[in-house]
Design a protein that fits this description.
single chain, 88 residues, alpha+beta, 2 domains, four-stranded antiparallel beta sheet, two-stranded parallel sheet, elongated
């Protein structure tokens, strides 16, 4: 993204084939595949977590459940997602 911004190149962040360039038609620029960005980090306060851009629902549920948490997932237009956690 830094390279694209510095060189005025449009970019498209893609996760799990949503938004591949053949789906968006005339997009011209750099396509960034987020599939390998799957880290889920539980914050030290144990009340929230950060998700990298390649994370998807099933991975969130399994990872948090395995660590003793449940959540409702929210997302924004950024490549980082977050959630509030609750121990079960």
């Amino acid at each position: 993204m830094k390279y694209s911004n510095k060189n005025s190149i449009n970019f498209l962040a893609v996760n799990r084939a949503h938004g591949w360039t053949d789906d968006v038609g005339t997009f011209q620029g750099l396509q960034i595949d987020l599939a390998s960005l799957t880290a889920i980090t539980i914050k030290p306060d144990k009340k929230s977590a950060l998700f990298q851009g390649g994370v998807f629902g099933e991975l969130v549920i399994k990872t948090l459940w395995d660590q003793g948490y449940v959540t409702s997932e929210s997302s924004s237009n950024s490549s980082t997602k977050s959630a509030s956690l609750q121990a079960y």
